[in-house]
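Dear support,

Our group has been running a series of protein-ligand predictions, and this particular one with adenosine monophosphate is the one our PI (initials K.S.) wants archived with full inputs and outputs. We had some confusion internally about which version of the output was final, so please treat the block below as the authoritative record. The input we submitted was:
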Amino acid sequence: MHTFKALGLTGDVLNGVISAGYTTPTPIQTEAIPVACAGRDLIGCAQTGTGKTAAFVLPLLDRLAGPTASRRGRRPCALVLTPTRELALQVEAAIRTYGQHTRLRSLVVYGGAGLRPQIERLRQGTDIVVATPGRLLDLMNRGHADLSQVACLVLDEADRMLDMGFIHDIRKIVAGTPATRQTMLFSATMSRDVQHLARSIMKDDTATVKVGEQRNPAETVTQHACLVPNPRKMDLLVHVLENEPVQNVLVFSRTKRRADRITRQLVRRGFSATALHANKSQNQRQRALDGFRQGRFQILVATDVAARGLDVDTISHVINYDTPSQVEDYIHRIGRTGRAEATGDALTFVSGDERGYLRSIERHTSQRLPRKVYDGFTPETDREDEPTEPRRTGYHAPRSRRRRNRRRR
Ligand code: AMP
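Confirmed final output from the archive:
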């Protein structure tokens, strides 16, 4: 069996892992840590929930805290880029936890919060910066962030950063760091764009470590689909909340307005629920997240963008109130439960309009989601081979398909 010590971690960083209570490295940690500790560039292909944060934070700390580390200055020696402020805060929290016995300083910069305090903290000096790309670039342009001493650069959730349009910001930021740096890139999916970025900023002998089947959701999550007419979704949600052994529940909705409406309806029915989406201020989002994490709210209703990288260990159920239209979103959503060693349940509500999305998810993940039937909620027509596309597109199945479907019935 592997131990963190056998992976090459030493001294204060090893003590940090022990203090965090971890004894056995996860597979991505087992593979990534020795490579990264040896100073090589690294591509880590892993979803959240696999322990990927520690897979790059531990080698990074080890490098900065080790005996060969250069003298501490005001300018940062390590930089971690993340797609969202929530993830930035989580990564920095992990750095503090694992680095608690080192004397390394870290700080986080992200958009949507005041510039001044961030400028002031940068001015005071730090060893590690965790940042979202837009704000960091802004600070660089204003002359407040000097990356010339960065020896270690991490791009976390690179695929999400590219999805969110950060490619140009990332390139400008990387150009501000020394070419001699070590680069680590983590991504749940290896799209062409991610590979292209990696090739252009990483060294030729870059190692790649992969855990799990890229397309298949975490194995610790029990997944079900539940066919339900759209107008019955709220009643079904309440039924599930009242009859399943739920603890903390993350509910996904397609739009911000819908997230607010679901939250209001749940609160009216006596549940403790709060919403997390991009229309909320940074303070409101933080309050919602903290309240959920600390158990003040049992239910968090979120949109996809707001929930990027959300890391709450105790989520017992993810409920897709709306079936995601993208398989990547599906995989990401259900990955919010079943974190680390725990197990979780993911339940996807599928209305008649959404069956095409369900089929697409099943095709891409090469699995049929078992159907869960709740008495009184099944649609009157339950023909799954019915050609179904979102109604508003005015879609009609081609004649040949309609005939084929008729024959099947
Ligand atoms: P991540 O994939 O980095 O978001 O991590 C998922 C969760 O696993 C986090 O809550 C970590 O605290 C936890 N974790 C990370 N490494 C370990 C480990 N070796 N053993 C148990 N839990 C871990």
